[in-house]
Amino acid sequence: MRVVIAEDSVLFREGLAGLLGRFGFEVVAAVGDAAELVTAVAETAPDLVVTDVRMPPGFTDEGLRAAVALRAAHPGLAVVALSQYVQHSYAGELLASGQGRAIGYLLKDRVADVAEFAGMLRRVADGGTVVDPEVVRQLMLRGRDPLGHLSAREREVLALLAEGHSNAAIARTLALTEAGIGKHIGSLLAKLGLPVNDDTNRRVLAVLTYLRSQQ
Known about the structure:
Blueprint: E1 2-6, H1 10-22, E2 26-31, H2 34-44, E3 48-51, H3 62-73, E4 78-83, H4 91-96, E5 103-107, H5 114-125, E6 129-131, H6 133-144, H7 152-162, H8 167-174, H9 178-191, H10 199-213
Parallel strand pairs: 1-2, 1-3, 3-4, 4-5, 5-6
Helix pairs in contact: 2-3, 7-9, 7-10, 8-9
């Protein structure tokens, strides 16, 4: 079975390639970003893609977006998203692609048995669907409350953003540094799964999401 791996961490990428080789997979390419993933699939025509979700340059949902595009371009391609995170943007679209066949979404930290993991990959390559129960749980929660994954502090920051405050003003209100506020905003934007465009536009979208949640 021919496999392309996409993972920005060199150590994890090489370790995964070695692991799959032990279980009889042929790793035809191992790349470090989404653009290289698309190129590798075009050049090698694999049976299966195993991709991280957050990769360069933005480390948000590049791998997931590439996977959705690849499924559209290559309907028979089996894809497994393997990540530390449940990235809500595009996750539903990926899992619904190809009528939900030959698709998987697994969390790295919850893979406890390598033989079982290899079996899951084969199941997806054979047309099955394998989704970690935690992924399902978080996607269901997301459907009920778009702010459900924000921390209490992130909710505070978002509420103040919705009131029109600048980063400096929020920092003064919450007795934090501006750098700290910037980190909270970056985190909440990622958790809300907002597309990476202009930072100002993302802030507006975040505020709109907050206002809708209050209705």
